[in-house]
Amino acid sequence: MVNKEFFAALADLVKEKGISQESFIETLRNALASAYKKQYDNGADISVELDPEAGTIEFRATRRVVAEVTDRDKEISVEEAQELNPAYREGDEIIKTFVPKDFGRIAAQTAKQVILQKLHEAERDSTFSAFSDKEGELMEAVVRKTDERNVYVELGEKKIEGVMLPQDQSPTERYAVGDRLKVFVKRVKNSGKNSQILVSRAAPGLVRKLFEEQVPELAQGIVEIKGISREPGHRTKIAIHSTDARVDAVGACVGNRGSRVNAVVEELGGEKIDIIFWSENPLEFIAKALSPATVISVTQISEKGAVAVVPDDKLSLAIGRDGQNARLAARLTGWKIDVKSVSAAEKMNLHTEEEMPAEEEIAEQAAPEEASAAEASGEAEAAGTENGAGEAAAEPAEENKEGE
Questions:
Q1: In terms of DSSP bridges, do strands 336-341 and 305-310 run parallel, antiparallel, or are they unpaired?
Q2: pTM metric for this prediction
Q3: Cα dihedral 41, 42, 47, 52 sign
């Protein structure tokens, strides 16, 4: 027999766990009806009514009055209905209330299942509610387990599970159970049973957040990160800009004796970082983006295409190993960049002083700061490959979204 104590216990549970009473009652109603049908293999149209105020649960079997019966569990003929009450007419509904024989056992089992289900849902919703504002943030994580594809980590004090998919893992890192690391919360998906918190060690956003941790000027808005292009585990280019002419943006990001950039490099497992001055002049920006190579000139040849000319002995440095330096520069600037040596440019009758400050001016503006950033991050790369007669081409990839 269900009494008011049963509903009082449910009310306390609802209040304690923050579950909606209406939602709980609705779920319990449907679960009891389903349990009854399963128990008695009954095709009748069964519904359940719960009244927490009165402390009652009532089962109802509904049958429709029809001229010709095709389903006796759900229908009754006009003649039979009128034997019960002469006032019944075709189309009316006859509702019979009853209590099943084994109702106590059915109710107990069903209520337990519904309670466990609702507690699980409440815990999941609470978790994702707490993490909804963490998307795009940096978090401490501990590796809990790994499989052939994914890495599973625990986040926060409540040890909520996050998933690092293959594309979000750095190719140069190996993850072992118990490892502590910082991850970028890429996405919080709350979609029922498939809810997930996706984290990343490969997203450009990870580099941004690591610098924000180290550089107070970024939090203050004095220094801005204008763009990041990254090949995880290998190299990152980050374009920065100072909103205050008195503040050296590169120096702020490098830190005293390279302390700030080195902290980021260490967290990324030795990944090389080029810190570059952003420029609103796209051709000047391209020259800076090809750092650490010296660029003699940059000429625009199409709407988003340019030719960068470098000294013959700096061609491999400008291109980078397997074209990496030029490729990252293209992604950072959003331009297609052809890198050519001076000798190759002369053979093609390309001018080397168009639409760009002279080489001496560029060196005077950028060399000291960018050299210090390169030195602080361990930059000393001269290996590369030459393509054809001293040239290489790099195209910007699709927009590098920091959350991906």
A1: parallel
A2: 0.65
A3: negative
Length of the chain equals 404
- Alpha carbons 364 and 277: distance in angstroms, whole number: 13
**Edge-to-edge strand list for the sheet holding 336-341:** 297-302, 305-310, 336-341, 391-394
Q: How far apart are CA 282 and CA 289, in angstroms?
A: 10
pLDDT tens string 107-165: 667 767 776 776 777 666 766 776 777 889 999 999 999 998 999 999 877 788 899 99
Task: Compute the distance between CA of residue 395 and CA of residue 109 in angstroms, rounded to an integer.
Answer: 63
Q: Using only the alpha carbons of the chain, give its radius of gyration.
A: 34
d(CA 355, CA 334): 18
Q: Is 259 exposed, middle or buried (0-12, 13-18, 19+ CB in 10 A)?
A: exposed
Is 126 in contact with 190 (CB distance < 8 Å)? no
| CA–CA dist 41, 34 (Å, integer) | 10
Which strands form 272-277's sheet, in the order they lie side by side? 223-231, 235-242, 272-277
3-state secondary structure string across the chain: CCCHHHHHHHHHHHHHHCCCHHHHHHHHHHHHHHHHHHHHCCCCEEEEEEECCCCEEEEEEEEEEECCCCCCCCEEEHHHHHHHCCCCCCCCEEEEEECCCCHHHHHHHHHHHHHHHHHHHHHHHHHHHHHHHHCCCEEEEEEEEECCCCEEEEECCCCEEEEECHHHCCCCCCCCCCCEEEEEEEEEECCHHHCEEEEECCCHHHHHHHHHHHCHHHHHCCEEEEEEEEECCCEEEEEEEECCCCCCHHHHHHCHHHHHHHHHHHHCCCCEEEEEECCCCHHHHHHHHCCCCCCCEEEEEECCEEEEEECHHHHHHHHCHHHHHHHHHHHHHCCEEEEEEHHHHHHCCCCCCCCCCCHHHHHHHHHHHHHHHHHHCCCCCCCCCCECCCEEEECCCCCCCCCC
**CA distance to 39, 50, 257, 276, 362, per residue, from 56 (Å):** 21, 6, 75, 72, 84
Mind listing the pLDDT tens digit for each residue in 202-234? 999 999 999 999 999 999 999 999 999 999 999
